[in-house]
Design a protein that fits this description.
3 domains, four-stranded antiparallel sheet, eight-stranded mixed sheet, globular, Rossmann fold, alpha/beta, Alpha-Beta Plaits, N-utilizing Substance Protein B Homolog, Chain A
Length: 440
């Protein structure tokens, strides 16, 4: 039986509360959700939309409530945010948004608070213009970001910081990666167009196809058969820079969930000795699933890159892909709960770990080999600063990124080593690459 509109909103509010108040990943929460069809779609839209605009919604709520927000039960506060999001989005009639949010309070066992919910949402309807004018004077609130991030972005990206904030609130495009071992890019594009999608190619990622509108991956022709995978074009550019060759020993050093491991193998027709390493055993199953679906084979190891003895056979690698753990501030539009979960204090901790991993990976690379350092962060502290420090302290390292990214849009003068993609540039996620070659 399909849940009612009020039940869907109640469920969304519970998930939003868990993401905000308990630090849970929204993707993980939704991965075990059992709703299907329109109910699933509505719940996901409510959850992602509410978290995307959380910092603005909570400011609005503070102006509308006649009691401290800290005194409101977390799930009820999340429900009010869900209701405000619907009123702001305009995707349903306002009377329905109010009525179903009030009904959701009753579903959640908050019947005594239903009058309060109704009063807050009705007040917003009456006072919408002055309330929004008050909160939107501050670009941090208007674009719904944590203040520490806006300040860091403004320092790092003087010309593009506002565009990045706006791009973070856009719905992300859906990029597919064509498996060249099983399909032809042109043939896949034609198949997708015949099925009703509008298809776009990418100027720098030859295996990438963007489809409009985005869809449940299970409905995409060729996905189950392993002809296509879902992967942003920015992530696909890692293979263009690393340029793997058949017969090489290649290490994907932080491999889960395995998308880049698979792309490496697809590019060389499966003819490379690829090791997929990850520190977390549960994450390795995702790699195995992707390899099985695509008909690929790799050596899978659980281990810490900084302590190689337990898993490394002592033979150096020709190429290493080092996609380090990072703040993920380049993929906020895909994972809006990053706005809520990430803190300023996390960045220096991550940067120290990134520096450690880069030094550790370099020791495993043969002379003449290539290491590609990547993040999905837009912050210099995790990108240019990490690589600059490494280059200063590593005499046998050279930044070969400019040569390998020739033909891509030019970076500003003095930008530092590597190549950083801003969120939304060429319809890509925010990403950073530094292609480092070890002197023979």
């Amino acid at each position: 039986m399909q849940p009612s509109a009020a039940e869907i909103r109640a469920s969304a509010a519970r998930l939003v509360s868990q993401a905000i108040d308990r630090g849970r990943s929204l993707d993980d929460l939704l991965s075990v959700d059992t709703d299907e069809g329109s109910a699933r779609g509505l719940k996901r839209a409510l959850c992602y939309g509410t978290l995307r605009w959380h910092f603005r919604l909570i400011e609005i709520l503070g102006l509308l409530c006649n009691r401290p927000l800290e005194g409101i039960a977390p799930e009820l506060r999340a429900l009010l945010e869900v209701g405000l999001f619907q009123l702001l989005s305009g995707e349903v009639a306002e009377h329905a948004a109010v009525a179903e949010t009030v009904g959701a309070a009753k579903v959640m066992g908050q019947a005594r608070a239903s009058g309060f919910v109704n009063a807050v949402l009705r007040r917003f309807q009456r006072e919408r213009e002055p309330v929004l004018a008050a909160v939107d004077r501050d670009i941090t609130i208007r674009t719904a970001h944590p203040r520490w991030f806006v300040e860091a972005l403004r320092r790092d990206c003087r010309e593009t910081w506002q565009a990045t904030l706006e791009a973070n609130n856009a719905h992300p495009p859906m990029w597919l990666r064509v498996n060249r071992m099983r399909a032809d890019v042109d043939a896949c594009a034609a198949e997708l167009e015949a099925a009703g999608w509008t298809v776009h190619r990418h100027p720098f990622a030859p295996d990438a196809l963007r489809i409009d509108p985005p869809a449940d991956v299970r409905s995409v022709p060729g996905f189950t058969e392993g002809r296509v995978s879902v992967q942003d074009a920015a992530a696909q550019l890692t293979v263009e820079l690393l340029a793997p060759q058949a017969g090489e020993r290649i290490l994907d050093a932080c491999a889960a969930p395995g998308g880049k491991t698979c792309h490496l193998l697809e590019r060389v027709g499966g003819r490379a000795e690829v090791t997929a390493l990850d520190i977390a055993e549960p994450r390795l199953e995702r790699i195995r699933e992707n390899l099985r679906r695509l008909g690929l084979d790799a050596r899978i190891e659980v281990g810490d890159l900084a302590e190689a003895a337990p898993w490394w056979d002592g033979r150096p690698y020709d190429r290493i892909l080092l996609d380090v753990p990072c703040s993920a501030t380049g993929v906020i539009r895909r994972h809006p709960d990053i706005k809520v979960h990430r803190r300023a204090r996390d960045v220096p901790v991550l940067a120290r770990r990134q520096e450690e991993l880069l030094r550790s990976a370099w020791r495993l690379l043969r002379p003449g080999g290539t290491l590609l350092y990547t993040t999905c962060s837009v912050l210099r502290a995790e990108n240019e600063q990490v690589v600059s420090a490494f280059l200063r302290n590593t005499s046998d390292a050279n930044d070969d990124t400019p040569g390998r990214s020739a033909g891509w849009p030019a970076r500003p003068a003095g930008a530092g080593p590597g190549y950083r993609v801003q969120v939304g540039e060429a319809d890509m996620d925010g990403f950073y690459y530094a292609c480092l070659v070890k002197h023979p």
